[in-house]
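Minutes, project check-in
Item: structure for the 87-residue chain
Input as provided by the requester:
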Amino acid sequence: MSEEIEKKLNFIIEAALQGRINLEEFYIRWPSEELDGIEYYDQMYAEIENAIEHTPFDLFSKKINDKIWKKTREYKTLLFYKSIIKS
């Protein structure tokens, strides 16, 4: 994986972990030209998309409900991908 793609993926995953990216921005930022059709990255794409869709936000403050978020499979999956990309 090139350093440029690694940076893009790290940005997307970190933003998803913090609830700072919506689906529209995710679709724009995903390096599709380089990664589409590669089964591993297709799975990563689907998992990140799912995590963004299911990030638990507090209705009143519009912030992530950390207590719930950090216990979810989606959060743990993002952490897993983050650790793989860094290695």
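Outcome recorded: The chain has one domain: 3-86.
No further action items on this chain.
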